[in-house]
Design goal:
This protein has 412 residues and is an alpha+beta fold. The chain contains twelve helices and 15 strands. Strand 8 and strand 9 form a beta hairpin. Helix 2 packs antiparallel against helix 4 and helix 5 runs antiparallel to helix 8.
Protein backbone atom coordinates (compact mmCIF):
# COMPACT_ATOMS: atom_id res chain seq x y z
CA UNK A 1 0.00 0.00 0.00
CA UNK A 2 2.91 2.36 0.75
CA UNK A 3 4.16 1.93 -2.80
CA UNK A 4 0.71 2.81 -4.08
CA UNK A 5 0.66 5.90 -1.86
CA UNK A 6 3.98 6.99 -3.33
CA UNK A 7 2.62 6.36 -6.83
CA UNK A 8 -0.45 8.56 -6.29
CA UNK A 9 1.64 11.34 -4.70
CA UNK A 10 3.92 11.29 -7.73
CA UNK A 11 0.86 11.26 -10.00
CA UNK A 12 -0.61 14.29 -8.24
CA UNK A 13 2.70 16.16 -8.38
CA UNK A 14 3.06 15.36 -12.09
CA UNK A 15 -0.42 16.72 -12.76
CA UNK A 16 0.29 19.96 -10.90
CA UNK A 17 3.61 20.51 -12.67
CA UNK A 18 2.02 20.08 -16.07
CA UNK A 19 -1.34 21.71 -15.24
CA UNK A 20 -3.15 18.47 -16.10
CA UNK A 21 -6.25 17.20 -14.28
CA UNK A 22 -5.67 13.97 -12.33
CA UNK A 23 -8.49 12.13 -14.16
CA UNK A 24 -6.94 12.86 -17.55
CA UNK A 25 -3.49 11.91 -16.31
CA UNK A 26 -4.83 8.60 -14.94
CA UNK A 27 -6.27 7.75 -18.36
CA UNK A 28 -2.87 8.42 -19.94
CA UNK A 29 -1.09 6.27 -17.30
CA UNK A 30 -3.60 3.46 -17.85
CA UNK A 31 -2.94 3.58 -21.57
CA UNK A 32 0.84 3.55 -21.02
CA UNK A 33 0.70 0.63 -18.55
CA UNK A 34 -1.49 -1.37 -20.92
CA UNK A 35 1.11 -0.94 -23.65
CA UNK A 36 3.87 -1.99 -21.23
CA UNK A 37 1.95 -5.07 -20.07
CA UNK A 38 1.19 -6.11 -23.63
CA UNK A 39 4.92 -6.05 -24.32
CA UNK A 40 5.51 -8.36 -21.37
CA UNK A 41 2.49 -10.59 -22.16
CA UNK A 42 2.18 -10.47 -25.97
CA UNK A 43 -0.34 -13.38 -26.04
CA UNK A 44 -2.71 -11.69 -23.61
CA UNK A 45 -3.29 -8.36 -25.36
CA UNK A 46 -7.08 -8.45 -25.14
CA UNK A 47 -7.15 -9.90 -21.63
CA UNK A 48 -5.09 -7.33 -19.70
CA UNK A 49 -6.94 -5.01 -17.31
CA UNK A 50 -5.57 -1.93 -15.46
CA UNK A 51 -7.37 -0.59 -12.39
CA UNK A 52 -6.32 2.83 -11.02
CA UNK A 53 -8.50 4.47 -8.36
CA UNK A 54 -7.08 7.55 -6.59
CA UNK A 55 -9.92 7.50 -4.03
CA UNK A 56 -8.98 4.07 -2.66
CA UNK A 57 -5.28 4.37 -3.66
CA UNK A 58 -5.73 1.24 -5.75
CA UNK A 59 -3.32 0.52 -8.60
CA UNK A 60 -3.46 -3.05 -9.92
CA UNK A 61 -3.09 -4.93 -13.19
CA UNK A 62 -4.69 -8.26 -14.10
CA UNK A 63 -4.86 -10.92 -16.79
CA UNK A 64 -8.37 -12.20 -17.36
CA UNK A 65 -8.02 -16.02 -17.34
CA UNK A 66 -10.61 -18.42 -18.69
CA UNK A 67 -11.49 -21.34 -16.38
CA UNK A 68 -11.09 -24.75 -18.13
CA UNK A 69 -11.15 -28.39 -16.98
CA UNK A 70 -7.91 -29.29 -18.82
CA UNK A 71 -4.30 -28.27 -18.47
CA UNK A 72 -3.79 -24.53 -19.32
CA UNK A 73 -1.97 -23.82 -22.58
CA UNK A 74 -0.77 -20.36 -21.49
CA UNK A 75 -1.43 -17.61 -18.92
CA UNK A 76 -4.79 -16.92 -20.51
CA UNK A 77 -6.23 -20.12 -19.05
CA UNK A 78 -6.56 -21.63 -15.56
CA UNK A 79 -7.62 -25.10 -14.42
CA UNK A 80 -10.95 -25.33 -12.58
CA UNK A 81 -9.36 -26.83 -9.47
CA UNK A 82 -6.83 -23.99 -9.17
CA UNK A 83 -9.51 -21.44 -9.93
CA UNK A 84 -11.69 -22.69 -7.04
CA UNK A 85 -8.81 -21.97 -4.59
CA UNK A 86 -9.03 -18.35 -5.70
CA UNK A 87 -12.80 -18.13 -6.09
CA UNK A 88 -14.96 -20.96 -4.69
CA UNK A 89 -17.75 -19.90 -7.07
CA UNK A 90 -15.60 -20.41 -10.19
CA UNK A 91 -16.90 -22.74 -12.88
CA UNK A 92 -15.77 -23.90 -16.31
CA UNK A 93 -16.31 -21.08 -18.77
CA UNK A 94 -16.10 -18.33 -16.15
CA UNK A 95 -13.11 -15.98 -15.75
CA UNK A 96 -10.63 -15.33 -12.98
CA UNK A 97 -8.54 -12.16 -12.62
CA UNK A 98 -4.88 -13.03 -12.09
CA UNK A 99 -2.94 -10.10 -10.63
CA UNK A 100 0.22 -9.06 -12.48
CA UNK A 101 3.24 -8.11 -10.39
CA UNK A 102 4.00 -4.69 -11.84
CA UNK A 103 7.60 -4.82 -10.59
CA UNK A 104 8.19 -7.88 -12.79
CA UNK A 105 7.11 -6.25 -16.04
CA UNK A 106 10.73 -5.73 -16.93
CA UNK A 107 12.99 -2.73 -17.47
CA UNK A 108 12.09 -2.25 -21.13
CA UNK A 109 8.37 -2.33 -20.42
CA UNK A 110 8.76 0.22 -17.62
CA UNK A 111 10.89 2.46 -19.84
CA UNK A 112 8.30 2.19 -22.59
CA UNK A 113 5.54 3.24 -20.18
CA UNK A 114 7.59 6.21 -19.00
CA UNK A 115 8.26 7.38 -22.56
CA UNK A 116 4.60 6.95 -23.47
CA UNK A 117 3.48 9.08 -20.51
CA UNK A 118 6.02 11.77 -21.41
CA UNK A 119 4.74 11.80 -24.98
CA UNK A 120 1.14 12.08 -23.78
CA UNK A 121 2.07 14.96 -21.48
CA UNK A 122 3.79 16.79 -24.33
CA UNK A 123 0.69 16.41 -26.47
CA UNK A 124 -1.55 17.58 -23.62
CA UNK A 125 0.67 20.59 -23.01
CA UNK A 126 0.68 21.38 -26.75
CA UNK A 127 -3.11 21.24 -26.95
CA UNK A 128 -3.51 23.31 -23.78
CA UNK A 129 -1.03 25.91 -25.00
CA UNK A 130 -2.80 26.26 -28.34
CA UNK A 131 -6.28 26.40 -26.82
CA UNK A 132 -5.13 29.08 -24.38
CA UNK A 133 -3.14 31.30 -26.73
CA UNK A 134 -4.36 30.82 -30.31
CA UNK A 135 -7.28 33.17 -29.70
CA UNK A 136 -4.87 35.70 -28.14
CA UNK A 137 -2.44 35.77 -31.06
CA UNK A 138 -1.78 39.42 -32.08
CA UNK A 139 -3.44 40.61 -28.86
CA UNK A 140 -2.19 42.29 -25.68
CA UNK A 141 -2.13 40.39 -22.37
CA UNK A 142 -1.15 41.34 -18.82
CA UNK A 143 1.46 39.05 -17.27
CA UNK A 144 3.51 39.12 -14.06
CA UNK A 145 7.30 39.17 -14.06
CA UNK A 146 8.50 36.03 -12.26
CA UNK A 147 12.24 36.08 -13.00
CA UNK A 148 14.88 38.39 -14.48
CA UNK A 149 18.16 36.92 -15.72
CA UNK A 150 20.88 39.50 -15.05
CA UNK A 151 23.32 38.07 -17.62
CA UNK A 152 21.26 37.38 -20.75
CA UNK A 153 18.59 39.89 -19.80
CA UNK A 154 15.75 37.46 -20.53
CA UNK A 155 12.64 38.13 -18.47
CA UNK A 156 10.29 35.28 -17.54
CA UNK A 157 6.66 36.28 -17.12
CA UNK A 158 3.75 34.23 -15.83
CA UNK A 159 0.36 34.27 -17.51
CA UNK A 160 -2.32 32.14 -15.84
CA UNK A 161 0.22 29.51 -14.81
CA UNK A 162 2.12 29.46 -18.11
CA UNK A 163 5.68 30.76 -18.30
CA UNK A 164 6.52 32.98 -21.27
CA UNK A 165 9.90 34.46 -22.19
CA UNK A 166 10.45 38.12 -23.02
CA UNK A 167 13.87 38.24 -24.66
CA UNK A 168 16.12 41.29 -24.42
CA UNK A 169 15.57 42.36 -28.05
CA UNK A 170 11.80 42.41 -27.40
CA UNK A 171 12.14 44.65 -24.32
CA UNK A 172 11.83 48.43 -24.46
CA UNK A 173 15.36 49.94 -24.46
CA UNK A 174 16.19 51.51 -21.12
CA UNK A 175 13.33 49.80 -19.32
CA UNK A 176 14.05 47.83 -16.13
CA UNK A 177 11.53 45.16 -15.21
CA UNK A 178 11.39 43.78 -11.67
CA UNK A 179 10.05 40.55 -10.19
CA UNK A 180 6.39 40.79 -9.18
CA UNK A 181 5.70 43.65 -11.61
CA UNK A 182 2.62 43.43 -13.84
CA UNK A 183 3.44 44.22 -17.44
CA UNK A 184 1.53 44.29 -20.72
CA UNK A 185 3.02 42.31 -23.61
CA UNK A 186 1.96 41.77 -27.22
CA UNK A 187 1.71 38.21 -28.57
CA UNK A 188 3.44 38.41 -31.96
CA UNK A 189 2.73 34.79 -32.83
CA UNK A 190 2.98 31.10 -31.96
CA UNK A 191 5.70 29.02 -33.60
CA UNK A 192 5.95 25.23 -33.72
CA UNK A 193 2.19 24.70 -33.47
CA UNK A 194 2.46 21.10 -34.67
CA UNK A 195 5.30 20.15 -32.32
CA UNK A 196 6.27 22.17 -29.26
CA UNK A 197 4.45 25.52 -29.38
CA UNK A 198 6.38 28.60 -28.32
CA UNK A 199 4.47 31.81 -27.65
CA UNK A 200 6.49 34.83 -28.81
CA UNK A 201 5.84 38.04 -26.89
CA UNK A 202 7.10 41.61 -27.33
CA UNK A 203 7.03 45.07 -25.81
CA UNK A 204 8.71 46.70 -28.82
CA UNK A 205 6.14 45.77 -31.49
CA UNK A 206 4.27 48.77 -32.89
CA UNK A 207 0.90 46.99 -32.55
CA UNK A 208 1.35 46.93 -28.77
CA UNK A 209 0.71 50.69 -28.90
CA UNK A 210 -2.45 50.11 -30.93
CA UNK A 211 -3.76 47.56 -28.43
CA UNK A 212 -2.99 49.87 -25.51
CA UNK A 213 -5.00 52.65 -27.15
CA UNK A 214 -7.86 50.19 -27.73
CA UNK A 215 -7.85 49.49 -23.98
CA UNK A 216 -7.79 53.18 -23.01
CA UNK A 217 -9.95 54.69 -25.79
CA UNK A 218 -13.50 53.27 -26.07
CA UNK A 219 -13.96 55.04 -29.43
CA UNK A 220 -11.14 52.95 -30.91
CA UNK A 221 -12.42 49.74 -29.35
CA UNK A 222 -15.94 50.23 -30.73
CA UNK A 223 -14.66 51.27 -34.17
CA UNK A 224 -15.74 54.93 -34.15
CA UNK A 225 -12.10 56.03 -34.27
CA UNK A 226 -9.83 54.03 -36.56
CA UNK A 227 -6.05 53.65 -36.25
CA UNK A 228 -4.83 54.09 -39.83
CA UNK A 229 -1.10 53.52 -39.33
CA UNK A 230 1.64 53.39 -36.70
CA UNK A 231 5.39 53.91 -36.79
CA UNK A 232 7.55 53.32 -33.74
CA UNK A 233 11.05 53.42 -32.35
CA UNK A 234 10.48 51.59 -29.08
CA UNK A 235 11.59 53.46 -26.00
CA UNK A 236 11.90 56.75 -27.86
CA UNK A 237 8.94 57.85 -29.98
CA UNK A 238 5.78 56.60 -31.66
CA UNK A 239 3.59 58.26 -34.27
CA UNK A 240 0.01 57.02 -34.59
CA UNK A 241 -2.38 58.25 -37.29
CA UNK A 242 -6.08 58.22 -36.35
CA UNK A 243 -9.32 59.03 -38.16
CA UNK A 244 -12.93 59.32 -37.02
CA UNK A 245 -15.84 57.79 -38.92
CA UNK A 246 -18.15 60.14 -37.02
CA UNK A 247 -17.67 63.82 -37.95
CA UNK A 248 -18.86 64.77 -34.44
CA UNK A 249 -16.02 62.83 -32.79
CA UNK A 250 -12.54 64.36 -32.66
CA UNK A 251 -10.17 61.43 -33.22
CA UNK A 252 -7.10 63.14 -31.75
CA UNK A 253 -9.03 64.49 -28.76
CA UNK A 254 -10.52 61.07 -28.04
CA UNK A 255 -7.03 59.55 -27.91
CA UNK A 256 -5.69 62.26 -25.64
CA UNK A 257 -8.63 62.16 -23.24
CA UNK A 258 -9.75 64.59 -20.55
CA UNK A 259 -6.72 66.20 -18.93
CA UNK A 260 -4.56 63.89 -21.09
CA UNK A 261 -5.72 60.90 -19.01
CA UNK A 262 -5.87 58.39 -21.87
CA UNK A 263 -2.58 59.15 -23.56
CA UNK A 264 -0.86 59.45 -20.16
CA UNK A 265 -1.94 55.88 -19.31
CA UNK A 266 -0.40 54.58 -22.55
CA UNK A 267 2.80 56.60 -22.08
CA UNK A 268 3.11 55.31 -18.51
CA UNK A 269 2.76 51.69 -19.68
CA UNK A 270 5.48 52.32 -22.29
CA UNK A 271 7.94 53.69 -19.73
CA UNK A 272 7.60 57.34 -20.78
CA UNK A 273 7.84 56.83 -24.56
CA UNK A 274 6.80 59.98 -26.47
CA UNK A 275 3.68 59.66 -28.61
CA UNK A 276 2.59 61.92 -31.47
CA UNK A 277 -1.08 61.54 -32.37
CA UNK A 278 -1.52 62.52 -36.02
CA UNK A 279 -4.90 63.26 -37.67
CA UNK A 280 -5.08 61.09 -40.78
CA UNK A 281 -6.20 62.74 -44.02
CA UNK A 282 -7.12 61.28 -47.38
CA UNK A 283 -5.31 64.29 -48.88
CA UNK A 284 -1.80 62.86 -49.05
CA UNK A 285 0.01 66.21 -48.92
CA UNK A 286 -1.89 67.21 -45.80
CA UNK A 287 -1.24 63.86 -44.09
CA UNK A 288 2.50 64.06 -44.80
CA UNK A 289 2.65 67.60 -43.41
CA UNK A 290 0.86 66.53 -40.21
CA UNK A 291 3.10 63.47 -39.88
CA UNK A 292 6.16 65.70 -39.41
CA UNK A 293 4.73 67.14 -36.19
CA UNK A 294 5.84 68.86 -34.05
CA UNK A 295 7.52 70.70 -36.95
CA UNK A 296 5.59 73.26 -39.02
CA UNK A 297 5.32 72.52 -42.75
CA UNK A 298 4.85 75.25 -45.35
CA UNK A 299 4.19 73.07 -48.37
CA UNK A 300 4.26 69.46 -49.51
CA UNK A 301 4.86 68.51 -53.14
CA UNK A 302 4.40 64.93 -54.37
CA UNK A 303 7.30 64.35 -56.76
CA UNK A 304 6.28 60.81 -57.74
CA UNK A 305 3.12 58.88 -56.93
CA UNK A 306 4.64 55.86 -58.60
CA UNK A 307 7.70 55.80 -56.33
CA UNK A 308 5.98 57.44 -53.34
CA UNK A 309 8.40 60.35 -53.05
CA UNK A 310 7.73 63.92 -52.00
CA UNK A 311 9.44 67.18 -51.10
CA UNK A 312 8.49 69.09 -47.98
CA UNK A 313 9.32 72.74 -47.40
CA UNK A 314 9.76 73.93 -43.80
CA UNK A 315 10.84 77.26 -42.26
CA UNK A 316 14.61 77.38 -41.81
CA UNK A 317 14.27 77.44 -38.02
CA UNK A 318 12.13 74.27 -38.17
CA UNK A 319 14.52 72.20 -40.29
CA UNK A 320 16.28 70.39 -37.43
CA UNK A 321 12.95 69.82 -35.67
CA UNK A 322 11.41 68.32 -38.81
CA UNK A 323 14.36 65.98 -39.32
CA UNK A 324 14.70 65.17 -35.62
CA UNK A 325 17.57 63.78 -33.61
CA UNK A 326 19.52 61.38 -35.87
CA UNK A 327 16.75 61.77 -38.45
CA UNK A 328 14.20 60.08 -36.18
CA UNK A 329 11.25 62.40 -36.83
CA UNK A 330 11.65 62.16 -40.61
CA UNK A 331 12.06 58.37 -40.50
CA UNK A 332 8.95 57.88 -38.39
CA UNK A 333 6.95 60.23 -40.65
CA UNK A 334 8.13 58.29 -43.70
CA UNK A 335 7.10 54.94 -42.16
CA UNK A 336 3.76 56.39 -41.08
CA UNK A 337 2.86 57.77 -44.51
CA UNK A 338 4.66 55.30 -46.76
CA UNK A 339 6.42 58.17 -48.57
CA UNK A 340 10.12 58.95 -48.90
CA UNK A 341 10.34 62.52 -47.65
CA UNK A 342 12.91 65.05 -48.89
CA UNK A 343 12.92 67.90 -46.37
CA UNK A 344 14.12 71.31 -47.60
CA UNK A 345 14.41 74.72 -45.89
CA UNK A 346 12.31 77.66 -47.10
CA UNK A 347 15.42 79.66 -48.09
CA UNK A 348 18.77 78.38 -49.33
CA UNK A 349 22.16 79.76 -48.27
CA UNK A 350 21.80 82.62 -50.78
CA UNK A 351 18.46 83.62 -49.31
CA UNK A 352 16.54 82.43 -52.35
CA UNK A 353 13.15 80.84 -51.78
CA UNK A 354 12.55 77.19 -52.68
CA UNK A 355 11.06 76.92 -56.19
CA UNK A 356 8.31 74.63 -54.87
CA UNK A 357 6.79 77.63 -53.06
CA UNK A 358 6.25 79.39 -56.38
CA UNK A 359 2.46 79.18 -57.05
CA UNK A 360 3.25 78.58 -60.73
CA UNK A 361 5.60 75.67 -59.99
CA UNK A 362 4.45 72.40 -61.57
CA UNK A 363 5.96 68.99 -60.85
CA UNK A 364 7.36 67.76 -64.21
CA UNK A 365 5.66 64.65 -65.53
CA UNK A 366 8.02 61.79 -66.55
CA UNK A 367 8.42 61.44 -70.30
CA UNK A 368 6.85 58.19 -71.46
CA UNK A 369 7.06 56.64 -74.97
CA UNK A 370 3.99 57.40 -77.06
CA UNK A 371 3.86 53.99 -78.76
CA UNK A 372 4.85 50.42 -78.04
CA UNK A 373 7.32 50.66 -80.93
CA UNK A 374 9.15 53.55 -79.24
CA UNK A 375 9.28 51.61 -75.97
CA UNK A 376 10.71 48.60 -77.84
CA UNK A 377 13.30 50.78 -79.61
CA UNK A 378 14.43 52.35 -76.33
CA UNK A 379 14.74 48.94 -74.74
CA UNK A 380 16.99 47.77 -77.56
CA UNK A 381 19.21 50.81 -77.21
CA UNK A 382 20.00 50.26 -73.52
CA UNK A 383 20.27 46.47 -73.85
CA UNK A 384 23.16 46.45 -76.36
CA UNK A 385 26.69 45.39 -75.47
CA UNK A 386 28.06 48.79 -76.59
CA UNK A 387 26.34 50.52 -73.65
CA UNK A 388 29.01 50.99 -70.97
CA UNK A 389 26.82 52.15 -68.09
CA UNK A 390 23.29 53.26 -67.31
CA UNK A 391 23.14 55.86 -64.58
CA UNK A 392 20.31 55.53 -62.07
CA UNK A 393 18.27 58.60 -61.26
CA UNK A 394 19.63 60.31 -58.16
CA UNK A 395 17.77 59.54 -54.92
CA UNK A 396 16.15 62.49 -53.11
CA UNK A 397 18.44 63.63 -50.35
CA UNK A 398 17.38 63.82 -46.73
CA UNK A 399 18.86 66.86 -45.01
CA UNK A 400 21.23 66.12 -42.17
CA UNK A 401 19.87 66.88 -38.72
CA UNK A 402 21.36 69.96 -37.13
CA UNK A 403 22.23 69.66 -33.43
CA UNK A 404 19.14 70.25 -31.32
CA UNK A 405 19.45 72.27 -28.11
CA UNK A 406 16.49 70.30 -26.76
CA UNK A 407 13.77 68.10 -28.18
CA UNK A 408 10.48 69.88 -28.64
CA UNK A 409 7.47 68.33 -26.90
CA UNK A 410 5.20 66.12 -29.01
CA UNK A 411 2.12 67.73 -30.43
CA UNK A 412 -0.81 65.48 -29.65
Amino acid sequence: MNKNNDFFKALESLGEENSVETELLIEKVKSAMLKAAKRAYPHSEDRIRVDIDPATKKFEMYIEQEVIDDEPIDENEINIDVAKTIDPNAYVGSTILKEIDISKLGRMAALSAKQSIKGDLREINREQMLSRFESKEHECITAKVSQVEPGRGTVTVDYEGTELYLFRNEQIPGETLTEGQSVKVYITGIIGKNKKPVVKISRTHKDLVKRLFEIEVPEIYDGTVEVKSISREAGSRTKIAVWSKDPNVDAVGACIGTKRSRISAVVSELNGEKIDIIPWSEVTEEFIAKALAPAEVLKTVITSHLENTCTVIVPNNQLSLAIGNKGQNAKLAAKLTGFKIDIKPQFDLNGEEAPELDPNFVVPEPELPETDEELFDNTEEIAGDEVEAVEAAPEPEIAEAAPEPSEAPAEE
